[in-house]
Backbone:
């Protein structure tokens, strides 16, 4: 199975930048799409962005033009560069990865433990 560990969260002022990282470890036949979700207090977890194994990306409208997702397939790491941060970006950010098991190629989803991003006004 695959484990995900996020890092890079913190406190930043509005207009500032942060870069999140998520490293995948473990054994799998393949790691397919990877992405980021976030959950603000009192809200449901929401999708932020996804990147496929070939590098295609999609973004939620709320972050387009400000967030950039990238991945290093050799390191099995996905990154989220965030600029022009707003107070409404404050949330716990979770890394997600879809992968296929080595045993039978079944598809699974892995989640990280989350990293807090706080944007002050």
Residues:
């Amino acid at each position: 199975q695959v484990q995900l560990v996020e890092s890079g969260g913190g406190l930043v002022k509005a207009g500032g930048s942060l870069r999140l990282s998520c490293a995948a470890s473990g054994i799998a036949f393949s790691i397919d799409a990877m992405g980021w979700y976030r959950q603000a207090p009192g809200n449901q977890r929401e999708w932020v962005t996804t990147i496929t194994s070939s590098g295609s990306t999609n973004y939620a409208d709320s972050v387009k033009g400000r967030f950039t997702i990238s991945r290093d397939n050799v390191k099995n790491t996905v990154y989220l560069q965030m600029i022009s941060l707003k107070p409404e970006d404050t949330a716990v950010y979770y890394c997600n990865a879809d992968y296929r098991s080595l045993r039978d190629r079944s598809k699974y989803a892995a989640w990280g433990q989350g990293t807090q991003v706080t944007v002050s006004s």
Remarks:
- The longest strand covers residues 30-39.
